[in-house]
Write a structure and sequence with these properties.
This protein is α/β, with parallel strands linked by helices. It is built from 14 helices and nine strands.
Length: about 350
């Protein structure tokens, strides 16, 4: 029995019969004899010395509690810092190559991978000034630097929501009317006990004007949340407004994935990797709310009144500060990109 990802809560009460899906897996299960044999082998292995197994593909190891232990001896710029390495990583590992700087020039069929190898070897950034200039010139002012915070309940808490659907409860918005111009900051953090999405929609309508590019880092997430909001039972004009925002998005993550590589990014275009390099003075370190998981937990405490009033006030302040930094960081990324052309 597992959650039905297609179930939509349409009434105040959960429809248990629709929330869960039952699957008969009897025929898929291996005979018990196999399980007993596996347990015997495990018992024997447990008595032996620690196995000396080679590391596997990074995506298979990332969530393992022994990740830091097994990967501790890798070179600083290992082959696993090359993005989307795939099966080529196994081949290089079998050839005894774990340092990306030992990879032959033009080893990959992918130009992007070869560029990353060159960046690691030289220690110098790769900068496609022409492409960056074109991207910047396509921006339409005013710019709206935008970032959502969401929570996703396994069991739908609000009507018109699915299991694990991202529910927007907060956003930060920095508005800039011209390159390097003054910033105007707007923010939304839901207060109350209703569905936060309705108030979120009203705030978006209030703060985002009819023209101008909307900047996000990994814009797919923000665009998907806006699509979700447009499916709410709201007036058609509001649906049309929300959907009109989609094509206005520009993605800073795309620029740092394609046109600017720095060795200290370690192959990533995540804002948590990019920001410390291009704007080291702006940091999440020491913040009481420092990532999306923290934001979810903070909102749960606030929404369900789990804190005394003074603690709640302080947490709300920290939550606003975190989301504000997310959009201010994008401002700094754009400022940096202008220095590259």
């Amino acid at each position: 029995m597992h959650l039905n990802s297609q179930y939509i809560k349409t009434t105040d009460e959960i429809d248990i019969k629709e929330l869960f899906v039952l699957e008969d897996l009897t025929l898929d299960l291996k005979p018990c004899l196999d399980i007993e044999e596996t347990l015997k082998q495990m018992e024997l292995l447990a008595k032996e010395e620690e196995p000396k197994l080679g590391i596997m593909a990074k995506t298979k190891c990332n969530n393992c509690e022994f990740f830091d232990y097994c990967w501790a001896d890798l070179p600083k710029f290992s082959i696993y810092s090359i993005p989307r390495l795939g099966l080529a990583g196994n081949k290089l590992r079998d050839e005894g190559i774990l340092d990306s700087r030992q990879v032959s020039p033009n080893y990959f069929s992918s130009e992007t991978k070869n560029r990353w190898v060159e960046v690691f070897k030289t220690g110098k950034p790769y900068v496609n000034s022409g492409a960056i200039s074109t991207w910047l010139n396509n921006l339409k002012y005013p710019l709206y630097y935008f970032d959502f915070e969401t929570i996703n309940f396994a069991i739908p808490y609000f009507k018109n929501s699915r299991p694990y659907e991202h529910i927007a409860f907060q956003f930060s918005l920095h508005i800039q009317k011209e390159p390097h111009g003054a910033l105007e900051h707007k923010e939304f953090l839901f207060e109350g006990k209703e569905d936060p999405r309705y108030a979120c929609i009203e705030a978006i309508k209030k703060y985002i004007g009819p023209v101008g590019s909307i900047i996000a880092h990994y814009a797919t997430f923000e665009k998907d949340r806006i699509k979700d909001l447009s499916k709410m039972p709201i007036p058609q004009e509001d649906k049309d407004f929300l959907l009109s925002l989609i094509n206005r998005f520009e993605d800073t993550c795309e620029v740092f994935s394609r046109y600017y590589f720095h060795p200290d990014f370690k192959g990533s275009a995540s804002i948590k990797k990019v920001l410390p390099v291009v704007c080291p003075k702006l940091t999440y370190e020491g913040m009481k709310v420092a990532n999306g998981g923290d934001a979810m937990a903070a909102f749960m405490l606030l929404y369900f009144d789990k804190l005394p009033a003074d603690k709640a006030k302080e947490l709300r302040k920290n939550l606003l500060a975190y989301c504000c930094l997310d959009t201010l960081a994008m401002v700094k990324l754009i400022d940096f990109l202008y220095t590259c052309v």
